[in-house]
Amino acid sequence: MIRKHLFTALMLTLSTHALSDDYTQELYDIYCSGCHAVSASNAPQAFSADWAPIVQRKGLNTLVTNAVRGAGNMPPMGTCSECTIDDLRDIILYMTEAK
Questions:
Q1: How far apart are CA 53 and CA 68, in angstroms?
Q2: What's the CA gap between 30 and 48, in Å, rounded?
Q3: HSE-up of residue 44 (Cα within 13 Å, Cβ side)
Q4: Where are the domains of the chain?
Q5: What are the C-alpha distances in Å from 71 to residues 13, 18, 77, 82, 91?
Q6: What is the pLDDT of residues 12-60, one digit of tens each?
Q7: What is the pTM assigned to this prediction?
Q8: Which phi and psi (to 5°) does residue 49 adopt?
Q9: I need a surface site. Which of 73, 88, 92, 95 has the fewest CB within 10 A?
Q10: Strand, coil or helix: what is 74?
Q11: Are 22 and 90 in contact (CB under 8 A)?
Q12: Is 92 strand, coil or helix?
């Protein structure tokens, strides 16, 4: 129970930073929305409840590593050659927010 509350508090704290960043939103729009905004892609849908169990099960560091290396149908760096690891972390946190 405490673990769940700590996870929620951490996600809210970290995602507030990501949401306030126009650059993160721009990177998402350019590189990520093509799959993470299309349910037919089988990618976790941005801004939906799809993310909570994934982040809780795998952890943010694993998700960032998967984004860097590529996972499933996602190519390495999600095709974002200009993204840094911190950018990818911010994009993942941005996509975890429900809208």
A1: 20
A2: 19
A3: 21
A4: 2-96
A5: 26, 22, 10, 19, 16
A6: 455 445 455 899 999 999 999 999 999 888 899 999 998 999 999 999 9
A7: 0.78
A8: -70, -5
A9: 73
A10: strand
A11: no
A12: helix
Q: Which CATH architecture has domain 2-96?
A: Orthogonal Bundle (1.10)
Burial 12-24 (b: 16+ CB within 10 A, else e): eebbeebeeeeeb
Q: Radius of gyration over alpha carbons of the chain, in Å?
A: 13
CA dist., res. 13 & res. 31, Å (int): 24
For the chain, the residue count is 99
CA distance 65 to 75: 12
Q: Identify the pLDDT of residue 95.
A: 95
**SS3 state of residue 71:** strand
Return the number of other C-beta atoms located less than 10 Å from residue 60's C-beta: 16
pLDDT confidence tier of residue 2, bands split at 50, 70 and 90: low
